[in-house]
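In response to reviewer comment 3 from the previous cycle, which asked for concrete evidence that the modeling workflow produces usable outputs, we include below a single protein chain processed end to end. The sequence was submitted unchanged, and the resulting structure tokens are shown without manual editing.
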Amino acid sequence: MRIAVIAPGMMGAAVAQRLHACRAEVAITLEGRSAASAARAAGLMTLPTEAALAGWADVVLSILPPGDALALAQRLAPVLRPRGQAVLYADCNAVSPASVQAIAATLPGLRFVDIGIIGGPPRGQDQGPRLYASGAAAADLAVLQQHGIDLRVIDGDVGAASALKLSYAGITKGITALGSAMALGAARAGVAAALRDELAASQPDVLRALQRSVPDMFPKAYRWVAEMEEISAFLAGLPAAPIYQGAARLYEALAEGGAPVATLAEFYRRPESKA
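The workflow returned the following structure tokens.
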């Protein structure tokens, strides 16, 4: 089985490296990618273009920021559609069920699997993230379990794995957004120190969790904007949907850095990091 991973971002490159280390035949492309991507992909087989990669592969793993997922499928469709059932396309992005169904609709005739990735990029000898797979062809990806990937097939059609992913991310990244928003509000009102002291006294577990998750979010905030919008679309018609539009705008602002990030970094500074 020849596996293409598009693209070699933090998650994609780590998944590709894990597959390679576990003796899978895997390749990526550096077309349009940065020097950082090239460094992450060191040692991997590379092909010159996305189209060449799609024509070579038996399995395509799409691992991108969610806002780019549909465009990738559209770009690859002219190469992949004529191959039909010979190729399996797995969308592994944090998109809503409606979005992943739209992606599948651009690739008629292919075996299509919906995957939701929960957890961080694989590192060293850890177990790596869980890849939850749904759809009629999901069992065809079970071979990835032999190559270091924790793939878990769940009941449901295309859209089920995405629903699970967004439900989980809505909780974890939603809590990070709430912790960020209220710390910024407290700082603006001049009560940040009092709030931090109260959290330490009455909610120490919450404070410790936010001291990890908020600073860890800063370099990822730009990627979380589209993910929050996808969660809002997933919740369309429910009263909570606008909450995630607000979270998207918060992460959009934090992605720009500046004073809000500095304020949060100070509020959630871990005690052991104080000089």
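The first helix runs from residue 10 to 21. We consider this sufficient to address the reviewer's concern, and the full set will be provided in the supplementary archive.
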